[in-house]
Structure formats: C-alpha cells, structure tokens
Amino acid sequence: MKYIKLINGPIEENSFIVWNENFHEGAIIDPGFIELEDLEKYLKEFNINIKYIINTHGHWDHIKNNKLLKNAYGAKLLIHENDEEYLYNPQLNLSYYYEKEIEPTKADQLLKEDDEIMLGDEILKVMHTPGHTMGSIILYNDKLAFTGDTLFFGSIGRCDLPNSDKEIMIKSIEKIKNILPKEALILPGHGNMESKFSEQLKSNPFLTGKMKPK
Q1: Is 214 part of a structural domain of the chain?
Q2: What digits encode the pLDDT tens for the residues 82-131?
Q3: In degrees to the nearest 10, what's the CA dihedral of 177, 170, 158, 34?
C-alpha cells in the first residue's frame, strides 16, 4: 500500500492519499484543507481512483473539504459512528470558534471497532481510540498506521477540547500499545516527522508512562 502526505491549511493538518498500486483503488484520509489542484496531479500521475474519503475524527481541520471531494469523485464518506454529529455541529467540530463554519456532509458509512476497509486486495483496519474525540480512530495494517490526532511523534492529541476525555484517552493509549503492529509507520494528523511504532514505544513519554494526558 502506497501513500502521499499533503500538509494543508492554517493548522497544517496532514491529509493522506493512500492507494493499492495493483488495483489503483485509493482513499483520502482527512481531506481538511486539501486543494483539488494538488490532489489531481497525484491522482493522474499514479492512476488512482478515489473510492473512499475517511475521517480519523470530526474536527473541522480534518473534515472541511469532505463535500468538495465527495462531489468531485463520488467517493463514499466514512467516519466513526461516535463522531457522526461532528459533520453537522459547528461547536463540536470547532469550526464555530474559528469563524469558519463548514457545510454539513452526510456520511455514507459509519465505522466501528475492527471494521476493515478494502482497497483492492489490501486492508486498512479500524481501531477505535476515543479520547481526543469519542469517535477518534486509527487506520492501520502491518506497515502503516494513520493515527489522526490520537498519536503524534513524541506526543498525543489534546484532551481539553469539547467532548474530549483524558481518562478515556489513557485507556486508548494502553489499547494502542497492545494492538498496533510494532513495525507500522506512524502517520499522524499533524507534524512532519514519522517513525515506526516500535521507536515511539521507547521515546514517546505518553507510551512509556512518564507523562499522562492533561
């Protein structure tokens, strides 16, 4: 499975194009402020057909261009069932506070724990990791882990936002430590650094237990 990272918008959110090289089936993870012009050149270069738009959670910087891409490619929009309301509620998705309210977009499929998203003959599995939001997810296989705003390089997502919960985040961290493949490359929703999960287990203070969510 191949991927390309695009850094977009005022909060520099990471959007990802991920695709199966043999079947040319792809998905856009967290479209946020992604520009169609930037996206199109990669889709043409690698002959990618966009099958899904997937939100790792429902904050505005990750969902803003859901409708733009849905209209452009006819792709299905996927989000965890616990974050469905974020697609419609500007106070939950935080766009209200930035005076950048976004157009609501209906989900085509609501995700849950252990769902599998097929791109050709390759799978991205859904791990439900509430804490940053109650519907936060990680999309992963043995080689890649798109961690949204749950897990960053050396840190974790904020737990002081509306509908966040630090105690639930602590449980999610333990779950991640037990389930996520050690050799998977961590690809977070913000930041320009990447590392394998095995490296994060040694260096990320929230995974080693040296720090707790606030």
Answers
A1: no
A2: 999 999 999 999 999 887 778 899 999 999 999 999 999 999 999 999 99
A3: 40
In a domain, 213, yes or no: no
The answer to whether the CB of 123 falls within 8 A of the CB of 114 is no
Q: Write down the pLDDT at residue 101.
A: 76
* Cβ proximity of 103 and 67 under 8 Å: yes
Instruction: Give the pairing of strands 144-148 and 116-119.
Output: unpaired
Q: What CATH number did the domain enclosing 156 receive?
A: 3.60.15.10
**CB-based contact 54:27 (threshold 8 Å):** yes
Tell me which residue range forms the domain holding 35.
2-208
Report pLDDT digits (tens) over 32-83: 999 999 899 999 999 999 999 999 999 999 999 999 999 999 999 999 999 9
Residue given tokens 């493949």 in the structure block: 181
End-to-end CA distance of the chain: 35
Quick one: CA dihedral 51, 176, 10, 1, positive or negative?
A: negative
> Is pTM, for the whole model, over 0.85?
yes
Mean predicted lDDT score pLDDT of the chain: 96
Total domains in the chain come to 1
Burial of 89 (0-12, 13-18, 19+ CB in 10 A): middle
How far is it, in rounded angstroms, from Cα 96 to Cα 90? 5
Is residue 136 within 8 Å of residue 57, measured between CB atoms? yes
What is the distance between the alpha carbons of residues 15 and 208, in angstroms, rounded to a whole number?
28
